[in-house]
Amino acid sequence: MTDFTSDTPVTRGRTAPPKREYYAYFGIIFLAALPLAFLTWGLSAARQFSVPERGPLARAWTQARIITPHIFSA
């Protein structure tokens, strides 16, 4: 039998950042990206005389999905 009480093995692994903190940053970045997404969506709609297939919410969501992991990997 093995006795782990005197020499407990130490596990060294990456711990994931807290989800609440990730979602808080994601929400802030998403809200910050919304005005620019609406502006670029409107300008591209005016230039092409048609509605772009991706809306401003999808554009802001994509930007937040790209930027937020960069904050946690730094």
Percentage of residues assigned to helices = 55-70%
Low-confidence stretches: none
β-strand percent reads under 5%
> How many β-strands, per DSSP?
0
Average of pLDDT:
86
N- to C-terminal separation? 44 Å
Summed up, the helix count is 2
Largest sheet: none
Instruction: Return the structural class.
Output: mainly alpha
Order of helices and strands: HH
Radius of gyration: 22 Å
Shape: rod-shaped
Keywords:
rod-shaped, single chain, mainly alpha, 65% helix, 74 residues
Compile the SSE list and pairings.
Elements: H1 19-48, H2 56-73
Helix pairs in contact: 1-2
In short:
The chain has about 70 residues and is mainly α. It has a domain of about 40 residues.
Q: If you had to describe this structure to a student in words, what would you say it looks like?
A:
- It is a single chain.
- With 74 residues, the protein is mainly α.
- It has a domain at 33-73.
- Helices cover 65% and strands 0% of the residues.
- The protein contains two helices and no strands.
- α1 (19-48) packs antiparallel against α2.
- The radius of gyration is 22 Å and the shape is rod-shaped.
- The protein starts with 18 loop residues before the first helix and ends with a helix.
- The mean pLDDT is 86.
